[in-house]
Amino acid sequence: MFAASDLFNLQQTEYAHLFEDGEPAWEMLPRLKGFLETAIKPANNASVSSHAIIGERVYLGEGTIVEHGACIEGPAIIGNNCQIRHGAYIRSHVIVGSNCVIGNSSELKNCLLFNDCQVPHFNYVGDSILGHHAHLGAGVILSNLKSVPGNVLVNGHDTGLRKFGALVGDHAELGCNSVLNPGSVIGKNSVVYPNMNWRGVLPANQIAKNLAQQQVVERASSTK
User: Does the predicted model carry a pTM greater than 0.90?
Assistant: First the structure.
C-alpha cells in the first residue's frame, strides 16, 4: 500500500509525474527540491495582503487569498482558490494544490498537498504527502525527524530518508492534537482519533481509536 496509486488519486494533482510507478510514494520527497529549483516560474495571480511576506521564487494561482501575517518563503507553488490564512508559514520546497486551506500558525516544509487539503489550525507538515481531501484537525503534528540516529523506517523498511513525516491518503481524517510519528502511513478514508500518538501503518478504511478511558465521578459537596 505504499505506492502513490494505492494512496492517492493522481488526477488530483498537476505533479503526478514526480511519482514513479510501483515505488514507495516517499521516494518522491527528495525530488521536490530539484524540481522546484529548476521548474518554478514565479508569478502572483492572487489577492495578497500588503502585510504578507512572499519570497522571490513563489507561484500563486488565480483566486488564491494570502492574508496578512502569512509568510511564503519559497520556492513554492500554491494552486488556485486557496486560502493562506493569517500566521501561516510555508517554507521551502512546498507544492500546495488547488482549493486548499493553510491556516493560522500552520507550518509546511518540503511537502506536497493534493487538491482540496485542509491544514487549518496549528499544524506542522514536514517532509510529507497529503492526499485529495485529507483533513488535519487543530493541532495535528506530522513529525518528520527521529529523536535517535538513523533513517526513518516504515514497518521495518528503511526509507533511506533521515527526515520523513507521513503519507496521508485521500479523504483521511486526523483528529485534533493527534501526532503521527516519523514514517507513518494512513490509508484512504481512514480516521485517527483525537489525541492519538500514532506510529506505523493504518490500512484504508480503518479507524484508530485511543483506548484511554474517561471516568466521571460525583463531586463531593462542599460548604461555603
Answer: yes
Are 144 and 162 in contact by the 8 Å Cβ rule? The answer is no
What CATH architecture applies to the domain 4-208? 3 Solenoid (2.160)
Sequence-ordered list of residues with C-beta below 8 angstroms from that of 16, at least 6 positions apart, any chain: 4, 10
Strands 153-154 and 197-198 turn out to be unpaired
Domain parsing of the chain, residue ranges: 4-208
**Catalytically annotated residue among 93, 121, 132, 133:** 121
C-alpha cell belonging to residue 198: 500514532
Q: Is residue 121 annotated as a catalytic residue, yes or no?
A: yes
Cα distance between residue 195 and residue 181, in whole Å: 13
Q: Which residues of the chain have pLDDT under 70?
A: 212, 222-224
Distance CA 102, CA 172 (A): 17
Grid cell listed for 154: 516504515
Q: Which residue type, as a one-letter code, is found at position 189?
A: N
For residue 26, the 8-state DSSP code is G
Find out whether 34 and 40 touch, Cβ atoms under 8 Å: no
